[in-house]
Amino acid sequence: MELWARFWVLVTHILRFTTLSAYEGSDQSQSPIAAGVPAEHLEPAFVPPVAADHDGPIFRPPGHRTDKGDGSDFKCNYTAMKGYRNCSTPLDRSCWLFNPETGDRFDINTDYETRAPTGVEREYWLDVTKSDIPNADGYPFIGATLFNETYPGPWIQACWGDTVKIHVRNTNPDRGTSIHWHGIRQLNSMQMDGVNGVTQCPIATGRNFTYEWKAMQYGSSWYHSHYSEQYADGTLGPITLHGPSSGNYDEAADIPLLMTDFRHASVFDRSNSNYSITSILLNGKGNVTQFDGQKKEEGLDIPTPYTLVFEKTVPRPKRYLLRLINTSIDSTFVFSIDNHLLSIVSADFVPIYPYLNTSVLIGIGQRYNVIVEAAPRANGTTQRRQDDGNYWIRTWLASCRPPPTDSSSYMQTGILRYNSKSTDNPKSFPWDKISTACSDETYTSLRPVLPWIVEPPINNVSTTPYLQHVSVMLNPGTGGFKDSFLAFRNDTGPNPGYTPLQIDFTNPTFNNLENTGTWKELWEVFPEGRSDKVDWVWLAITVSTAAGGDTDAHPIHLHGHDFAILQQSEQTVYSENNLRLNLLNPPRRDVVLLPASGFIVIAFKADNPGSWLLHCHIAAHASGGLALQILERQADAASMWPSKSPARTSASSLCSGWESWMATSYAPTASPTTLPTDSGI
């Protein structure tokens, strides 16, 4: 096998340099300028850890200012790591911890999939409540579902190597919930992934559940409900796992920057006329009047836009770290700041070699850490800098969806100021030739610092076709469930057909790991990982152009893994005989944009036992059935979590609570949308 793997890598290495790139797309993709690095507090709901009696380092995260006044005073705590010192400095953020006696380091080159520092336990408490968002953008949202009655939800912070414990209580009287920690690897902890019907039953009203996971990765992410489309009602918040960076910076923005599309009525009540009132929010603030002539509610003011404040310094300008997260239900954004270049340093949880651009495209669920110099530049339209020091932060809608029809300012969602006392709106102009093409960042720009060499696939390697293949299909009019309209068709299965996923709230996959028979058809389970050692699974995903095809672009998210993107193409014809696969350190992440009418080929290591969801992150598409489960190393999973294990006992207790609530409190005539008629995820 090892000899075959080396031969395979050699062949594809030659092919890669023959064909130049594994990306085929339009010339309107988000192209970089050049490689290199440029010269309101969210409630924490957090209890600081108690330091142990050791001499490892305790320090504030890099770039954390002590005069922000947010009261969190968050610190990384490695007191258990005797002899180590914090080595992160503004001149070298790639280093995290260093032991001067042994020379051991934890840094940007450490294999974070297998090794992490020893941190502390961080605890958070989240209440899922039925609440209102009185004024995010000049118009109220009555009947939202929130964490701790705040929107966005509390900022969950941890440091690389910490154990994170989150106690979730559901006080929403109408619906259950389950909370997914987006992008968290959950190595050997499937039961903590937070997907009702897959890893657990929903948390019933009045019940609670404690999630616990290890911060093996570092970077930016978010958490959200995975109960049907519930996160569209506000059930989401940011996650920051502090760690090293491939780019150097002086300070970090006070909080992550969450961008989202926003409606004003529950997703479970689409008949409400307020559901059609839309806007864009940046960190929970927007302006509803910027969209198609919509009016604000009488008596409500338009909130002050989210504001960043930069400080001008000499002789070298300060560099600021921004954490960008797309938490939308339907929208892909292009983020830019007038007159300021972005140095992109990570994609999802994967550190990459920095590259410069005027903008960055962020699909739903994707995250980018970027570094911005406090040094305005000429952009071809306006002067080098605005006299008042004010610049628009813009979140453009990518062409995946049509923009507002009669608004030229909808994308002006935030302000960068050099004078914190200024209250004037910026007069700045956007960068020339900002592309809003519905296309991921340029394939060749996303170069991971920690390299992967992808090995041949274990799935279908000796058959024709050799590559597992699924395609996105629209409802052909038969099969599925009431609200299904999309599915992954298994084109290499024994019976290809339209099978949208629909989970069973009362009987999650986690409680069926011993199953040796067939799986329920609408569960859409793909068994993978067929050997006793770590192997690679390859999967081709296409957008069918045949009858029953679909022409949308889809942000595809895989739980429990990062995956390598072997090829990403906007070509409408998919043929295994004409692939240009890149196996030598290809881009990797946990959300990739499947081009409209195109295809992607992804690969991941089958090293994480359990059932992992693969789905489109457009909320309506996941709700409509565009998802499947990848059941990985089932025998190992069944061995890890036998029926009487503590994890299975806890899962059964959660399911009993759900069934009890269903039997005593569910009133379908009074609340007909309490149980979904959709996929459930």
UniProtKB/TrEMBL annotation:
Keyword Oxidoreductase tagged: yes
Domain Plastocyanin-like, first and last residues per copy: 145-244, 278-420, 518-634
InterPro entries xref list: Cu-oxidase-like_N (IPR011707), Cu-oxidase_2nd (IPR001117), Cu-oxidase_C (IPR011706), Cu-oxidase_fam (IPR045087), Cu_oxidase_CS (IPR033138), Cu_oxidase_Cu_BS (IPR002355), Cupredoxin (IPR008972)
GO molecular function per UniProt: copper ion binding; oxidoreductase activity
Keyword vocabulary terms for this entry: Copper, Metal-binding, Oxidoreductase, Signal
PROSITE patterns: MULTICOPPER_OXIDASE1 (PS00079), MULTICOPPER_OXIDASE2 (PS00080)
Signal sequence bounds: 1-22
SUPFAM superfamilies reported in the protein's UniProt record: Cupredoxins
Family: Belongs to the multicopper oxidase family.
Protein name: Laccase
